[in-house]
Amino acid sequence: xxxxxxxxxxxxxxxxxxxxxxxxxxxxxxxxxxxxxxxxxxxxxxxxxxxxxxxxxxxxxxxxxxxxxxxxxxxxxxxxxxxxxxxxxxxxxxxxxxxxxxxxxxxxxxxxxxxxxxxxxxxxxxxxxxxxxxxxxxxxxxxxxxxxxxxxxxxxxxxxxxxxxxxxxxxxxxxxxxxxxxxxxxxxxxxxxxxxxxxxxxxxxxxxxxxxxxxxxxxxxxxxxxxxxxxxxxxxxxxxxxxxxxxxxxxxxxxxxxxxxxxxxxxxxxxxxxxxxxxxxxxxxxxxxxxxxxxxxxxxxxxxxxxxxxxxxxxxxxxxxxxxxxxxxxxxxxxxxxxxxxxxxxxxxxxxxxxxxxxxxxxxxxxxxxxxxxxxxxxxxxxxxxxxxxxxxxxxxxxxxxxxxxxxxxxxxxxxxxxxxxxxxxxxxxxxxxxxxxxxxxxxxxxxxxxxxxxxxxxxxxxxxxxxxxxxxxxxxxxxxxxxxxxxxxxxxxxxxxxxxxx
Length: 503
Hints:
The chain is mainly beta. The protein has one helix and 36 strands. Strands 10, 12, 13, 14 and 16 form a five-stranded antiparallel sheet that branches. Strands 19, 21, 22, 23 and 25 form a five-stranded antiparallel sheet that branches. Strands 2-7-4-5 form a four-stranded antiparallel sheet, with no helix packed on it. The protein starts with a helix and ends in a 12-residue tail after the last strand.
C-alpha cells in the first residue's frame, strides 16, 4: 500500500469521525452491511402560497388552515400565513411591485393552534394581499390551506376556491381562455427573498399563440403578480392551455378564471403530463361539462374517454375518443353527461402508445342567468393521505373514485374550528366507479372542519370535494381535488462504508 492510499484512508477516517460520513452499499455488492429499506418519516418543513383573492369590493374571503395528526413528529413546531409585504409594511400593488423595499413577508394573518383542529380567518374587500406560509415540526406533514371567496355580483360572481399551493417551477393549466367574455389572470406568487423570473406560454386550437410580454416576467420577492392573459396576446380563443415555466427562483401559480355570465373560479394546475389521467368528482347536477386537453410532446395523443359512474364505467355517447394534436389545445363539450349521478372522467390511451397529456374540465351548474362555473384538473391519486379543508355543515360533498381497481379508504372528519370531536368511517369503492360518500359527521361540530382521506388497501383512489354555497338563486360552488399531501418522505438507512474510497 503506497503513501497516497494511506493518506486517503487517514483523511477519510478523520472526515467520518467529524461529520458522520455514511454511504449506501451499492446493489449487488458483497459485504456485511447491506443497504436497508428506506424509512417513511414525516416531512419537517412545508411551504405554501395563497394568491391575492379578488379585486372586488364585494369579496368575502375565508382562509382555513389544517394539519392532520401525524405519528412521529415530536411536540414542537408552528404553522402560519403572513401577508406578502415588504419590511416597511407596504402591500404589493396590482403589478406585484411593492411600495416599500423588498424584505421578509409581513405580519402573521393566520396561525395554527394544534394539529387535528382547523383554524380560519376572514378578510373583506378587494385589497387582501397574497399570503406566504410555512409550517415546521408537528405542523408540517400534510399542512393544507384553502382560500374561499364569495363575490355577490359582477364578473366572476359566485364562489371561488383554491388550495394554497407549494412553490414549484413548472405548471400546466388547460381550460383557461382569452375570449371576450372571460377575464383570466394567472397569479404568480413568489415566497422567497430573491426575484423570480417566469415565462408564460399560451397554446390554442392551432398551436402556440403569439405573445408580447410573456417572457422574462419578474416577480418581486414576497409578492403576487397577476397577469391578465388577454394582455399577452391579441388572439381571442375559448380554450387555451397556459404553461408557466420558472427559469429563476420558484413561484406558486394558479389561474383565476372569471366569466361575465357564468360566474368563475380558480383553475388549479393539472397533474404532471401522463398517458392516463383521472379528473375526479364531477357534481351529479352539472348541466354542462367541457373537457380540455393538451399534449406538450411531439406526438399526437389518442385518448379513450370514460365516465366512472356509481354503477360502473360509461362511454359518453358520441365522445368515445378524443384526438389531441401535439402542441394544440383540444376541447369537447360533453353536455349534461352526468344525468343526475356523480362521476369522474378517466382518460387512457387508445393503444399502447401513450403520449403525455394534461387536462381539466369546466363544470357548469344552474340554468339561464343563474349559472355558476368551477374547474376540475387532472389529479394525482390520494396516495397515503390527502385533505380538504373549509367543509361546512351544509353543501359539502366528498367524491371518491377507483378507476383501475377496487379501493378501500378511511375518511376522517376533524374536530370543528370552534369545537367538536373527530369521527372516522371506512368505505370500499368498487372498481370503475365513483361514489359520493356519506361524510362522517364530527360529534358536536361547530365551525368548519377538515376531511382527510387515507388509502387503506386496493388500487389507487382519487377524490375531490365540492363546496356548494347558494346565494340569491345562484348555485355557487367550487371543487378541489385531493392529491397525496406528500407529508411523508422516504429516508434511506445508511451505514459507514469507507471501502468505497479504496477502489
